[in-house]
What does this fold into?
Amino acid sequence: MELNVLNIEGKETGRKVTLPESVFGIEPSDHAIYLDVKQYLANNRQGTHKSKERAEVAGSTRKIKKQKGTGGARAGSLKSPVFRGGGRVFGPRPRNYGFKLNKKLKQLARKSALAYKAQNQGIVVLEDFNIEGTTKLTKQYAAIVNGLNLNGQRSLLVLKEANENIYRSAKNIQRAEVVTLSELNTYDIVKAKSLVLTESSVEEFGKLFNA
It folds into this structure.
């Protein structure tokens, strides 16, 4: 699959790049995408929820009324779950929601998400660029987003390697995210409406996926 390389103004440069067929041309696996996204979200859960059970609630353990003769059910402690302020029965406890997936399945999931983006014309190839200076960084990146007609869309820019100025320039723009190729994950690909690949990063996709 060939795509035109655009400059930062959104105009064609006259160059074309070929997306690796072994990555962007595969038959997507919906189930692999589902599992990888599920794992990503599960691994990001804090799991710090906690409620007090009857052994942990503060209060007296004095028997509150005699065992028999009251006409009501027997009761041994105000910390019982049946009383207001008592402990909770089978309440949530801290836990780790994460689970493991094998490497090949995660690789298939990322390939599948990229293949869907290619099928739906959701990929833009941008020539390599840099943002200069220490001020007005956001303004410069906003001009690039505007030139690519991505205003209001959730976009994901994929860089070959980290660039601090580009990270900072996109930080204050809503729905614009920047990642390096090694940080690319299935959840971010699926979440973005448009995937913006820098020209140099396209060449690395085959190596990343051992194509």
Q: What stands out?
A: The beta strands are 2-6, 12-18, 123-126, 155-159, 176-180, 194-198. The chain has a mean pLDDT of 90.
